[in-house]
Amino acid sequence: MKIHDISVKIEKNMMKYYSLRDVIHTFERDYSKGDNMSLSSISMQMHLGTHLDSPYHYIKEGKRIDEIPLEKFCGKVQVIEINEKEIKAEDIKTKGIKCDKLLFKTPYSKDLNNKNKDASLSYFSEDAADYLADTNVDLIGIDSFSIDRSGAKEKYVHKKILGAGKIALEGINLYDIDEGFYYLYAFPLNIKGAEGAPCRAVLIEGEIL
């Protein structure tokens, strides 16, 4: 059994969606200040780094992150590699859906791994969103920080996928992950009423107990 950490490290000047604020990590007490302990606080938006979007993020009547059963955040997952930054319905149909959880690896994984902040984000086309919304897939992940095209005003993809009751997992680093089947564990922080939450996402390769 091998564990792959596909989470982005939370740190100052990290890779992120262009409109989000940087994380603020403050050591309120620390040995370097002469204290006998270390105590820090963190301030960040829910959608910084590797995170989950619940339907409530764009759907007023949708479930919030703490209302979703935990089994939705773990289970067998199919990693699909797409060689373009736009993921189209035809790409997904060609690969074939074999699990109810899908992670999409695109060229952005290399940008993310190399911390190329000038790189354009990958995203799902509208026809891909339409197609996925009508499947039994319950979790859709992408290496990019948004399932929509960067700067998209209408957020069609978010509304279509989240409106179908599905969960989006964004900001996963799949650079060292081969296409295939794994076990995913991506549990959100248990934040009451939140529209999303950071998570530590890992893939398990091989047999698990």
TrEMBL record:
The organism's place on the tree of life at top rank: Bacteria
SUPFAM superfamilies assigned: Putative cyclase
GO terms of molecular function: arylformamidase activity
GO biological process, one term: L-tryptophan catabolic process to kynurenine
Short name of any one Pfam family annotated for the protein: Cyclase
Protein name, entry field: Cyclase family protein
Gene source species: Acidilutibacter cellobiosedens
